[in-house]
Specification:
about 190 residues; Four Helix Bundle (Hemerythrin (Met), subunit A); YecA family protein; YgfB-like_sf; YgfB-like
Length: about 190
């Protein structure tokens, strides 16, 4: 993963011990959405969404807050960089295809929710490409996981792996496009 030392599995632990119901992919997507609309105090908004009833004094909550703060800093830097450093935080390739595809759908849900926290978007202020990207991300949230990774032939599994890789790359590029337009729109 290009975003420093954080990975999916490493973030799952502090989220789980702090009682966060959402997984690492969805939380990272939410954070990215908040960063793309340049919302004020994104970490505080994120924490308010995923841990609304958490006691700030609990050690597990403090550890989760530190982890999310580090990921926020790394993600903000990756989003502002030349574009090759950013990637959605997803399970590694060794995980089953259906779990990785499900995490991608959850990542997209979180991302769209994060954008929505800034308030309604005026579609007229977005380019056609940005509107299409938002629609495509919404479609990814409805991926049919039952149709993936069955006992199909090896060639079909390789095609599904390739398709998932291409969708992840599309999401990465779509997020960078949306960030550019949404930040410009809010200035």
């Amino acid at each position: 993963m290009a975003q420093g030392s954080w990975d999916y599995e490493r973030l799952e632990h502090p989220l789980g011990t702090a009682g966060v119901e959402e997984g690492a992919a969805q939380v990272h997507g939410l954070l990215c959405g908040l960063l793309c609309v340049d919302i004020e105090r994104p970490l505080e908004r994120l924490l308010g969404e995923v841990m609304p009833d958490a006691s700030a004094g609990e050690l597990s909550v403090q550890e989760c807050r530190v982890a999310l703060g580090e990921i926020q800093d790394q993600t903000r830097e990756a989003l502002a960089g030349p574009g090759f450093g950013f990637a959605p935080l997803l399970p590694p390739e060794g995980w089953p295809l259906t779990e990785r595809a499900g995490a991608l759908a959850e990542w997209c849900q979180g991302f769209l929710y994060g954008i929505g926290l800034a308030g309604p978007l005026d579609p007229e202020t977005l380019s056609r490409e940005a509107r299409e990207a938002l629609n495509d991300l919404a479609e990814i949230t409805r991926i049919d996981l039952d149709a993936l990774g069955g006992d199909d032939e090896e060639q079909e599994q390789e095609q599904e792996e390739q398709a998932l890789t291409e969708i992840v790359e599309f999401v990465r590029v779509a997020v960078l496009l949306l960030r550019e337009e949404l930040i410009h729109d809010r200035q």
